[in-house]
Design goal:
The complex is a heterodimer.
Chain A: E1 2-11, E2 14-24, E3 29-33, H1 40-47, E4 55-60, E5 63-64, H2 69-75, E6 76-79, H3 91-101, H4 106-119, H5 135-147, E7 153-157, H6 165-182, E8 185-190, H7 193-196, E9 201-206, E10 209-214, H8 216-221, E11 226-232, H9 235-246, E12 251-253, E13 256-261, H10 264-274, E14 279-285, H11 289-297, H12 304-320
Parallel strand pairs in A: 3-8, 3-9, 6-7, 7-8
Antiparallel strand pairs in A: 1-2, 1-4, 4-5, 9-10, 11-13, 11-14, 12-13
Helix pairs in contact in A: 4-5
Chain B: H1 3-22, H2 24-48, E1 52-55, E2 58-61, H3 62-91, H4 94-99, H5 105-128, H6 140-167, H7 173-188, H8 200-208, H9 210-223, H10 232-255
Antiparallel strand pairs in B: 1-2
The chains are: A alpha/beta, B mainly alpha.
The complex binds adenosine-5'-triphosphate and magnesium ion (MG).
Magnesium ion binds next to helix 1 of chain A.
Chain lengths: ~325, ~260
């Protein structure tokens, strides 16, 4: 459905996208996961014909994004990262505008608008001017709008940034539902790890390059198994003993020991039995995509300050809205 | 132009009309500014300096003389403001929604030009309602002839505005446009003074101003052909030509965005 070959885009000195190649199949949910400035939005803008690539080529539903731009535009829907509503119109009027420019057939127009508004919980507010909406409500309206014309390919650029968990879940339910019914292809960018788990395949992108591309499960096997976190009465002694008995290197982090083991469930009982030091707590978790990113780049996508950065970004977003 | 693009033109037009309807301040100010010019400035000047305008063998009071000019001013300001709202749309992101839609860029420019001219026509129409207070008699037939001419003028002016908006990066540039385009267009149009007996340099400047022909057409229609400088046919030809050229340039700019 989407074929991208060696796409590269420079803005003056800055190389936003440094030659990426990938394919997305029909009906697939494909995700771009990467830190700020990695080139996610630029890639989307190229695919949806708003930005011309400096070099390389991309095709969508068989149409080249440069030479067949209007055919591409007819096949896609997009939820932009930045606000794009007309704040002086009502929610309903924004959707009618969209339905008109996307030639949604007249006989299904009202019904589509109603179900889209219903999905995002804005039916009751349909006559209100968008300017009076909260940031989250505006975001929900944009998502409803992007889905209105049932595109073949839907681009979601950080669709749920700043939304509460219930709304995020609801939107994901709708997206999965729509994909099943209409077999639409979804391309999303995010830096929410849990959101990325919704994808069939994920490309991890950093500095304009794809550094890994696979299913979430496969990506996580790159980490080398499960992660065990434990805290004991004497961590130093425990670490020594673990090395002695199991040949494993435990790393200390935040007054806790962290172990990477191939099969965590099987290893847990022997580990507990083998330690002389009393154990205060122990937990086992599957590796996350965050661990994968850390492994690949040596950095976290969202290090300690990133949580704050993220909420600041959504704050800026809201303020601009 | 196929059905989809026609529908897009309609959507873009409709959006501007809805936004205008909702903007009560604009409706009020559309009356306030012309009223200020006509009743205060016009009256003050005419009485204070006892001005009468005599041109082409016809004679009229100053306030009546500038009335078509003030209608032209209203069309000019409204058309420009509506067209330049494209820059706001770019700033607030709505333009992306339009640019990524499966419609021709020509329909975007044309929809915008029609939206701007409709709004300007309504604003100008409101100024027409002032005529009884100025001692100008407008017959229903005359109103029916004047309105399409006003629409044509508005279309040309909005197209000029769109060409500028397409090249404008941010709203900061608006002040520049106001000073270097809108005000000169207004002042040079002969809205406030007769075009006869001007020094040559000023005469050439007024003739280079498209609004001159708009004001002249309105003046000829409303006050009688004797007070007009050019024939109605010439006026309309120039306005239509400017409109055709400007909308083509606007479409071209949009296609390359
Ligand atoms: N229009 C532009 N002009 C100049 N530089 C740009 C432009 N758009 C993007 N860039 C640069 O390209 C790089 C990639 O930006 P992009 O928006 O694609 O990142 P992103 O992965 O979407 O990041 P984020 O998670 O913050 O949205 C950045 O360094 C950015 O500064
Ligand atoms: Mg981005």
């Amino acid at each position: 459905m989407i074929e991208v070959r060696e796409i590269q885009k420079s803005f003056g000195e800055v190389e936003a996208v440094a030659g990426v190649t990938f394919d997305v199949g029909g009906g697939e949910i494909f995700g771009f996961l990467g830190p700020n400035g990695a080139g996610k939005t630029t890639t989307i803008n190229i695919l949806c014909t708003l930005v011309r690539p400096t070099s390389g080529s991309a095709a969508l539903a068989g149409y080249d994004v440069v030479s067949k731009a209007s055919e591409v535009r007819a096949s896609i829907g997009i939820v932009f990262q930045d606000p794009s509503l007309d704040e002086r119109l009502s929610a309903y009027e924004n959707l009618i505008f969209h339905a008109l420019v996307y030639s949604v057939p007249k006989d299904v127009r009202e019904e589509r608008i109603a179900s889209a508004l219903d999905m995002v919980g804005l039916w009751e507010r349909r006559r209100d001017i968008v300017r009076t909406f909260s940031g989250g409500m505006k975001r929900r309206l944009e998502i409803a709008r992007g889905l209105l014309h049932h595109p073949k390919v839907l681009f979601l650029d950080e669709p749920t940034l700043g939304l509460d968990p219930q709304t995020r879940n609801k939107i994901w339910e709708f997206v999965h539902d729509l994909r099943e019914k209409e077999n639409i292809t979804i391309f999303l960018t995010t830096h929410y790890m849990d959101e990325a788990e919704n994808c069939n395949r994920i490309a991890i992108i950093d500095h304009g390059r794809i550094i890994a591309l696979d299913t979430p499960a496969k990506l996580k096997t790159m980490v080398g198994g499960d992660v065990i976190t434990l805290s004991t009465a004497d961590d130093e002694a425990a670490a020594e003993q673990i090395k002695e008995l199991h040949g494993l290197e435990a790393t200390a982090q935040d007054a806790k020991l962290i172990l990477e083991v191939p099969d965590g469930e099987k290893f847990l009982a022997p580990l507990v039995r083998s330690l002389d030091t009393p154990i205060n707590s122990i937990s086992l978790r599957r590796p996350t995509l965050e661990d994968v990113f850390l492994k690949l780049t040596g950095r976290t996508i969202r290090d300690e300050s990133a949580g704050a950065l993220d909420s600041m970004r959504s704050h800026v977003r809201m303020r601009r809205r | 132009m196929n059905m989809n693009n026609l529908r897009a033109v309609y959507a873009i037009w409709l959006r501007d009309v809805i936004r205008y309807k909702r903007d009560k301040a604009r409706v009020v100010s559309s009356l306030a500014q012309p009223a200020l010019f006509l009743f205060v400035f016009g009256n003050g000047l005419a009485r204070g300096l006892s001005i009468n305008v005599a041109t082409g063998g016809a004679r009229t009071g100053y306030v009546a003389f500038i009335y078509p000019g003030i209608i032209g001013m209203t069309l000019l300001f409204t058309s420009m403001f509506t067209a330049v709202s494209i820059v706001w749309d770019r700033e607030f992101g709505f333009l992306k929604e339009v640019m990524v839609a499966p419609i021709s860029r020509a329909s975007v420019a044309i929809g915008k030009a029609l939206g701007g001219s409709t709004v300007a026509l309504i604003q100008g129409g409101i100024v027409l309602l002032l005529s009884p207070f100025l001692g100008v008699k407008l017959s229903p037939l005359l109103i029916i002839t004047v309105l399409p001419v006003m629409l044509l003028i508005s279309f040309s002016l909005t197209s000029i505005g769109i060409v500028i908006a397409a090249k404008m990066e941010s709203m900061e540039g608006f002040q520049v446009i106001m000073n270097f385009l809108i005000m000169p267009l207004f002042v040079l149009s002969g809205a406030m003074f007769p075009l006869t007996r001007l020094p040559v340099w000023l005469r050439s400047l007024t003739r280079a101003d498209p609004l001159t022909y708009g004001v002249d057409a309105l003046r000829g229609l409303i006050l009688g052909p004797k007070l007009a400088e050019f024939s109605l046919a010439l006026d309309l030809t120039v306005i239509a030509l400017v409109g055709a050229i400007m909308i083509s340039v606007a479409v071209y700019f949009f296609e390359r965005q």
